[in-house]
């Protein structure tokens, strides 16, 4: 199946890389976090999370995408992380067709935001490579609303076939609506990552994608498997199949302090030409509990301070996740640009 939407998926060495000499694509930040600026309330705790607003306030979703684009994001992710047939059926009383149509319309909102942004830059002297439109594909556990995307507990009870069957309609809806890349994210276990890699390779061989994991510490995936083993084995699997559509592997929705040791476990001992392209979009560093919400903002190290070491270790996509705002993405963009300038002095 080819990508729709009139543009090919991002390729290593494409015009985007030529425009950004650091070779790093800056992603957007925490969608629900920035969305709260427009809807005026906390979104955490809702079983649909930010996906509810695709139905109730798509204008706020549109404005959130624009916030990130105006802050310098070179890729925006659709507000579909927690969007599913089951979730929309249970909490919005939509049937399967209506649920899938809502997912498609959510992609179109992101398309409209990109179009609006590009229209405002017609007379700009800066490179006008269109920002990437990335479909957010959250894990199987997210729709269970029991926190299992942070434990991977279902890895031993759910089969790879079930995982693929659950993801397939959402993936197809996003592709049909028109995206450039699939962002398969917050994956807590190797089994789900492998099932999704196989699904993409076999059924959507021309669609580019990344896989980012949820990790519980500086060595392990959420369910206890070694991050380095999961990443190395998936990359080897891609190379053995001559797969050219897997763009990167990495982490998201983690504390930023654990990213560098995770990346070192994969790439530190590899020669530069053998390094695996990595992706990272961590949380702010605040800690979340159900009882107290997000705590510890005053202790957070700004994400841009980590950027040089992540780039040195092979990061090719960098953004933010929970509790990161458009202003954080602006500072990450400045850090990436600074690295590019220094490398050409």
List the helices and strands and how they pair.
Layout lengths: L14 H5 L5 E2 L4 H9 L13 H4 L1 H13 L4 E3 L7 H8 L3 H24 L12 E6 L22 H18 L3 E7 L2 H14 L4 E6 L13 H14 L5 E7 L6 H9 L10 E4 L5 E3 L3 E3 L11 H6 L2 E4 L7 H18 L2
Count every beta strand, where a strand is a DSSP E run of 2 or more residues: 10
Unreliable residue runs: 1-21
N to C succession of SSEs: HEHHHEHHEHEHEHEHEEEHEH
What distance lies between the first and last C-alpha atoms, to the nearest angstrom?
43 Å
Explain the overall architecture.
There is one protein chain. The protein contains twelve helices and ten strands. The protein has 345 residues and is α/β, with parallel strands linked by helices. Strands 1-10-7-6-5-4-3-2 form an eight-stranded parallel beta sheet. The chain has a two-stranded antiparallel sheet with strand order 8-9. A hairpin with a 3-residue loop joins strand 8 and strand 9 (293-295). Helix 6 packs across helix 7 (160-177). The longest helix is centred in the N-terminal third of the chain and has 24 residues, at 96-119. The chain starts with 14 loop residues before the first helix and ends with a helix.
